[in-house]
Amino acid sequence: MVCVSNSASPTGMERITKRRLFLACLALSGVIYFLRGRKAELRNMPAFSPHSDSGVEGIPREGDQVDETIHFLNVTSWYAPVVWGDSTESERRRGEFAYRTFRTGLVVFVLGRYSQYLLRFVVSAERYFLPGESIVYYIMTDNLRSIPDLELPEDRELRPMRVAEMPQWNHLSKVRMSLLAEAIRGTIAKEVEYLFCMDVDQEFINPVGTEILGDLVATLHPEYFGLPLYTFPYEKVKLSRAFVEEGEGDFYYTSELYGGLCAEVYALAEACSRFILQDSEMGYHAMQYEESYLNRYLINHRPTLLLSPEYSWWDSPRTLDVPIQRIVSLGRQCASLEPQNKETRKC
Ligand SMILES: CC(=O)N[C@H]1[C@@H](OP(=O)(O)OP(=O)(O)OC[C@H]2O[C@@H](n3ccc(=O)[nH]c3=O)[C@H](O)[C@@H]2O)O[C@H](CO)[C@H](O)[C@@H]1O
Ligand SMILES: [Mn+2]
Fold first, then answer.
1. Whole-number pLDDT of residue 21
2. Do 225 and 320 form a contact (C-beta atoms < 8 A)?
3. Does residue 114 have its Cβ closer than 6 Å to ligand 1?
4. Which residues, in sequence order, are bridge partners of residue 340?
5. Which residues, given as ranges, of the chain have pLDDT below 50?
6. Which of 203, 211, 256, 291 is flagged as catalytic?
7. Which cofactor does it need (predicted)?
8. What does the pLDDT read at residue 228?
9. How far is CA 5 from each of CA 8, 18, 88, rounded to the nearest angstrom?
10. Where do the domains of the chain lie, and which CATH numbers do they carry?
11. With a threshold of 0.90, does the pTM exceed it?
């Protein structure tokens, strides 16, 4: 803001006017500064913190009992609903979709040894994922023989899509987004209205209905939900395209489940694959791999619907209890176990 006058030799009157102008500028700057600070504060503030009774906001104190019945965030500060499957709002959303005809795609990557998870994934999805709706499972695989021979209802279909990639974890975390964008551009966009992408090392254990449908849908990471911003594992390396500035961000989202309208998922996958490629050209890959780029994208393009940790849960000392576990991650569950417990849990 420029508040300077150029007059050469000010008269007494001019001096008073100048002084008033200066004071007015000062007051205006103060108001702007206050409003900007308030806006930043509001943006970073969850509408309701599950642990707001604890000493420091967001961090449960040792021995704190979290009240299971009341502590759920239902809407974000930018008015995006947070989905808890048994809420009346979810019931209302399911009612809204009951009269609509639409098709939903579900993409999973199944390469190398991850084929061991596919049967359990599909069988559980058939039981619980959008029951009664029209579904195409896009199975991105290097082994067409891994596709289970299952008889599905008429409007639900398993669609193998061949990918010629090395089944190496680090490699896949760099190419999944571009393979996804390519598949949407090539086939998927013509076939379905909504699209979800999931890790295959998961299992549906309770109903996941049309309450999850939205334009851009992201899932709250169960280990960070309710914790303050500074604890989130956002990318810290400044040169990375996934970099998140201190104080930036709203929530930490998991890469195990995201989706929305096909066009939105395409935009997300295309942008993330571009970020990953740019980082790769410098020989860098973000700290949390794909998840870091996803989180960067979702800060710039806030999701219109957030799924609560009911939709991505695993048992670890850090996860928040949820009323109903709907989707559990078998892989991340194993990763969170102590070595001595891995065998008993068949990891
Ligand atoms: C791919 C990826 O970046 N995953 C994220 C996730 O890892 P996760 O431990 O959840 O990754 P993961 O091992 O489940 O791999 C992700 C998915 O890729 C597919 N897959 C992977 C490897 C393979 O050999 N074959 C195959 O098909 C499969 O669908 C699998 O579910 O969590 C990490 C932190 O805990 C990181 O934040 C990662 O960003
Ligand atoms: Mn996983």
1. 57
2. yes
3. yes
4. none
5. 1-10, 13, 16, 25-26, 29-70
6. 291
7. Mn(2+)
8. 92
9. 9, 8, 61
10. 82-342 (3.90.550.10)
11. no
Can you give the three-state secondary structure of the chain, one letter per residue? CCCCCCCCCCCHHHHHHHHHHHHHHHHHHHHHHHHHHHHHHHHHCCCCCCCCCCCECCECCCCCCCCCCCCCCCECCCCCEEECCCCHHHHHHHHHHCCCCCEEEEEEEECHHHHHHHHHHHHHHHHHECCCCEEEEEEEECCHHHCCCCCCCCCEEEEEEECCCCCCHHHHHHHHHHHHHHHHHHHHHHHCCEEEEECCCEEECCCECHHHCCCEEEEECCCCCCCCHHHCCCECCCCCCCECCCCCCCCCEEEEEEEEEHHHHHHHHHHHHHHHHHHHHCCCCCCCCHHHHHHHHHHHCCCCEEECHHHCECCCCCCCCCCCCCEEEHHHHHHHCCHHHHCCCCC
d(CA 106, CA 88): 26
Report residue 67: phi and psi, to 5°. Answer: -75, 110
Query: Does the annotation place 114 within a ligand binding site?
Result: yes
Residue tagged 């996804």 (tokens): 180
> At 208, phi and psi to the nearest 5?
-125, 100
- Tell me how far the alpha carbon of residue 62 lies from the centroid of ligand 1, in angstroms: 32
Catalytic annotation on 96? no
Q: Is 233's C-beta closer than 6 angstroms to any atom of ligand 1?
A: no
> Does residue 215 have a known ligand-binding role?
no
State whether the beta carbon of 136 lies less than 6 angstroms from ligand 1: no
Phi, psi of 275 (to 5 degrees): -60, -45
Q: What whole-number distance in Å separates Cα of residue 347 and Cα of residue 341? A: 9
Which two three-digit tokens encode residue 237?
A: 């390396």
Dihedral of CA atoms 123, 126, 128, 131 in degrees, nearest 10, equals -170
Most informative mutation of 255, 280, 288, 293 for ligand 1 (most atoms within 8 A of CB): 255
Give the pLDDT score at 317: 86
134 with 102: CB under 8 angstroms? yes
* Tokens representing residue 281 in the block: 């050209």
What is the percentage of the chain residues whose pLDDT exceeds 70? 78
**Is any atom of ligand 1 closer than 6 Å to the C-beta of 169?**
yes
Query: Is 250 annotated in some ligand binding site?
Result: no
